[in-house]
Description:
This protein is of the alpha+beta class. It contains two helices and three strands; from the N terminus they run E-E-H-E-H. The chain has helices at residues 53-62, 72-81, and strands spanning 28-32, 44-48, 66-71. It has a three-stranded antiparallel beta sheet with strand order 2-1-3. The longest helix has 10 residues, at 53-62.
Amino acid sequence: MDPVVNESAAGDEPLICSAKGCREPAAWVLAWNNPKLHTPERRKTWLACGAHREHLGQFLGVRGFLKDVVPLEEWRRAEERS
């Protein structure tokens, strides 16, 4: 449940939600880290469709892991600028 936020090799397949069993296209990026394992600046990412954004965010938030929730398109633009 920890996909890389990159296009597929073909570049034409949509990124898929990280929720177990979901095959919907992702619309959100949930950036997180586990402070027991990762340095403070490290960000891991999960992808979420609209229906699973809140559930995945709550899962990470309860554990204190959630750092940011960003629309996928905004995340892509930021990645292109870096």
